[in-house]
């Protein structure tokens, strides 16, 4: 899944450069939060921004991506699931076709991103036993 994550990061930054926005740095804390969420969705068969335990996305991310004292802190999240052959370009295209996801991709405030992709074979719940790739992108600034 590392190749997919690298493709998505490159595609996000190419898009942001094209729009005159700053590139995003990969952040390990955001990546861990994103990966944990993708794994949880695959394991428990759900697809939503809130966690399996009911926490909102920002409550879920905050323990990993802690605010710095006396500075602005903010996070956003994009998710997608598709066939195992999902490419970075396809993920970006799907997000660009969704106004809230497009807004996240192009938000000038973001400075960092974390990416977590998993492949789930015979995924339960909303995935109806299909083999799927689940990708979470967590955006942040602090």
Radius of gyration: 14 Å
Physical arrangement of strands within the biggest beta sheet? 1-3-4-2
How many H/I helical runs? 5
Query: Which percent band covers the strand fraction?
Result: 15-25%
Largest sheet: 4 strands, mixed
The backbone outline, from C-alpha atoms, is globular
- Unreliable spans are none
What share of the residues lie within helices?
Answer: 25-40%
Look at the structure and give the mean pLDDT.
Answer: 97
Strand-helix topology:
Elements: H1 2-18, E1 25-26, H2 28-44, H3 57-61, E2 74-82, H4 88-96, H5 99-105, E3 112-120, E4 132-141
Parallel strand pairs: 1-3
Antiparallel strand pairs: 2-4, 3-4
Helix pairs in contact: 1-4
Summarize the structure.
The chain is of the alpha+beta class. Helices cover 39% and strands 21% of the residues. A 4-stranded mixed β-sheet has the order 1-3-4-2.
Walk me through what this model shows.
39% of the residues lie in helices and 21% in strands. It is globular, with a radius of gyration of 14 Å. It has 142 residues and is α+β, with helices and mostly antiparallel strands. The chain has a 4-stranded mixed beta sheet. The mean pLDDT is 97.
List keywords for this structure.
142 residues; alpha+beta; 4-stranded mixed β-sheet; 5 helices; 39% helix; 21% strand
